[in-house]
Design goal:
Elements: E1 5-10, H1 15-26, E2 53-59, H2 65-72, H3 77-88, E3 91-94, H4 102-105, H5 116-133, E4 137-142, H6 159-167
Length: 171
């Protein structure tokens, strides 16, 4: 086993997120077909192996994995058993949607606190996930529904400006 990589999926219970996690849960490491990193020339790249990935993430839904998979049509009921135990190990955190995000506007969830409180929640979620998953590193993958974007001319210039705007409650 190599370096353990945590993959935190924003929108983990949506069609794309649940398909990704379910496909990973169904794979047999002896005959991988899920990741490019498992076969061919990609083996020479520094990509994580399937056994070294652990999934978690955020979503506005609080349903069970059986409900998620059925709603999205991800797996046939005959295949659920094998994947279910691995899916149940997936850490899912409460979504942190801003007041004008799609999920809040459509009534799917309440808005998260803004500013420093939002940044503190997200950082705490990532730390908790990293510790519980025993991950050496964590990446965040955004596959959720669209958020309402502000006009392009108001976007922060870089990551530092983005974090500062979040911390000051400007976003």
């Amino acid at each position: 086993m190599g370096t353990r990589t945590g993959v935190m999926v924003v929108g983990i219970r949506g069609a794309t997120g649940s398909t990704l996690v379910a496909a990973g849960a169904l794979q047999d490491p002896a005959t991988p077909r899920f990741l490019l990193s498992e076969t061919g020339a990609a083996r020479t790249m520094a990509l994580p192996a399937l056994d070294d990935l652990v999934f978690g993430g955020w979503d506005v839904r609080t349903e069970t994995w059986s409900e998620t998979l059925a709603r999205n049509g991800v797996l046939s009921p005959a295949r659920l058993g094998r994947a279910m135990s691995r899916l149940e190990e997936t850490l899912v955190f409460e979504a942190a949607a801003l007041s004008e995000d799609h999920a809040v506007v459509n009534g799917e969830c309440a808005p998260a606190p803004a500013g420093k409180a939002l940044l503190a929640k997200l950082r705490a979620d990532v730390r908790t996930f990293r510790e519980r998953a025993a991950a050496d590193r964590v990446v965040v993958l955004y596959v959720a529904g669209p958020a309402k974007l502000p006009p392009r001319e108001t976007w922060p210039a870089d990551a530092a400006a983005f974090l500062a705007a979040l911390e000051n409650g400007a976003l």
